Amino acid sequence: MSHDDRQLHLNVNITNIGRHPAAWRFLDDPAAYVDVDFYKKIATVAERGTFDAVFLSDGLALHQEPPVEPYQSLEPTVLLTALAGVTEHIGLIGTASTTFNDPFNLARRFASLDHVSKGRIALNVVTTYSPQAAANFSFDESPDHDARYARAEEFVDIVTKLWDSWEDGAIVGNKVTGLFTDGDRIHTIDHVGKHFSVRGPSIVPRSPQGRPVLVQAGSSEVGKALGARVGDIIFTAQTTHTGAREFYTDMRARAAGHGRNPDHLVILPGLYPIVGSTESEAHARKDELDSLFDFDRELPRLAAQLGVDVVDLDLDKELPYDRLVDVSEVKGSRGFFESTVRQSREQGWAVRELILRNGGAHRQIVGAPEQIADSIEHWFRARAADGFNLNFDVFPTGLELFTDHVIPELRRRGLFRHEYTGSTLREHLGLPRPQSGHQAAVSV
Ligand SMILES: Cc1cc2nc3c(=O)[nH]c(=O)nc-3n(C[C@H](O)[C@H](O)[C@H](O)COP(=O)(O)O)c2cc1C
C-alpha cells in the first residue's frame, strides 16, 4: 500500500470509567463501572465516530487493597456480548489470559462471540504478570516471565488450530439428501505439546471472520516474537517518537521474517489525548481533574510497575535510575517499564510530573483538536504507528469531545474513514479473511 493510501486505525480503550484516577468523581453515578448501560453509551458514541473497535482490558485480581476505586471488573466476553447487541459495525476486542485459561474453552468463547457479533471480535492474548492473579489460581507465585510466554505460544497455536478445525462449507444443510455437514471438512487437531493435549475439533463452526482477529501486546523480546508471528494487531506503550519508530520498523521486519506481509500487522501504540476547544481549555480540564489526584494511591502503583520500594520514590525528585533493575530482569511488563523509564529520562521529569503526565504508561497530549490531529498525523505519516489505541480521561465526555472535534479534523485531512465500508473488524483493519489451514493445504 502506498504512503498516502494508508488509513488510520483508532480504537477506544475502555478503561472502565476513564483513565484518570479521579474520573469517577465526575460521574452522575460513581458506581457506573458495573453498569452495562454506561458501556453501551461508550460503544454507541465510538460507533458514531467510526472507530475501528472498542477494547476491554482485563485483570484477574483486585489489584488494590480495600478501600478500592474503579477498575476493570466485568468479564470482557460477557460485556462484549451485550455491546454486540447494541452496535452494528464497530469491532469488539476482549482480553484473555493465556496463563489462567484453557485453550479449548477460550477458542470456543471467542468463536461464539464472532458468530454472535457477525464478525467483529478480536482476542487480546495476555500472559498476566500479576502475583495477585496467580494467588487466585492456585499458584504460590506468578510463573516466570519467559515460561508464561512459552505457554502462550503453544496456547495460541491450539486456539488457531481449533478455529481452523471447521472449514468453510462444512455445513451443507442439504434438506433433500439429509446431509447436514461434510465430514471431510471437520478435523481433529490432535495436539500434544509441553503444556496441553487437545484432540478437537472445535464445537463451533468456522466463524464469520474465519478466525477472530488476534491482538498481542507484549514488548519484551519474547513478547515481540509472539506478536510478530501471530498478531494481527499489536498494542504497545510508546512514549517517544524515536522509540515508536524503532518498534514499528522492528515489528514489521520480524513479521516479514515469518513470511508474513508486514502490511497485515496493525501497530497501535497507546495515546491519551485530553481535548479542549482551545489549548487553554484542555489544560483547564486536566488541571481540574489533577487537583483531585491522590498521590498516596498512585505512588505505590508506580513503584510496583518499576519494581522499586515505594520509599525510594520522592515526588519532587527524578526516578532513582541507579536503583532500577535492567529491563531484562523485570518480572512484570517489560513494555510498560521501558516506555515509562524512557519518557521520564528523556523529559527529565520529577516523579510527580511523571505520574501526572504518563497516563497508564501511555503518551499524553493536552490540546485543541488541531494540535491533537497534528500529533496523530505526524506519528502516522512517519510510520511510528498505524493508528492508536486511545485512552480518555473520563467516559463518556472525553470520548465525546474527541469524536465531535478531533475525528472531523482527521477526516478533513483524508486520514480517517467517514463511514464504515465493511462489516467485519478484519475489513475495518484492511486484513484478509484467513483460510482454514486445511483449505490452504488443499489449494496448494
Ligand atoms: C495497550 C496494552 C494493553 C494491555 N492490556 C492488558 C490487559 O488487559 N491485561 C494484562 O494482563 N496485560 C495487558 N497488557 C500487558 C501485555 O499484554 C503483556 O502481558 C505485558 O506487557 C507483559 O509482556 P512484556 O513483558 O512482553 O511487555 C497490555 C499491554 C498494552 C501495551
Task: Please provide a written account of the structure.
By secondary structure, the chain is an alpha/beta fold. The chain has one domain (7-276, 363-443): TIM Barrel (Alpha-Beta Barrel), CATH 3.20.20. The protein has 15 helices and 14 strands. It has helices at 36-48, 76-86, 103-116, 131-136, 145-164, 221-230, 241-257, 279-290, 295-306, 334-347, 351-357, 369-381, 397-412, 425-429, 437-443, and strands spanning 9-13, 53-56, 91-97, 121-126, 171-174, 179-181, 191-192, 197-198, 213-216, 233-236, 266-275, 358-359, 362-367, 387-390. The strands form 3 sheets. An 8-stranded parallel β-barrel has the order 1-2-3-4-9-10-11-14, surrounded by 8 helices. A hairpin with a 2-residue loop joins strand 12 (358-359) and strand 13. The mean pLDDT is 94. The structure holds flavin mononucleotide (FMN). Flavin mononucleotide binds next to strand 10 and helix 10.
CATH architecture: Alpha-Beta Barrel
What is the topology, as strand order, of the major beta sheet? 1-2-3-4-9-10-11-14
Instruction: Tell me the number of helical segments per DSSP (H or I, 4 or more residues long).
Output: 15
Please mark out the parts with pLDDT under 50 across 5 or more consecutive residues, or reply none: none
Annotated CATH homologous superfamily? Luciferase-like domain
Total number of beta strands: 14
Hetero compounds: flavin mononucleotide
Order of helices and strands: EHEHEHEHHEEEEEHEHEHHHHEEHEHHH
Q: What percent of the residues sit in helical stretches (DSSP H or I)?
A: 25-40%
Give me the secondary-structure category. Answer: alpha/beta
Indicate the radius of gyration in whole angstroms.
Answer: 22 Å
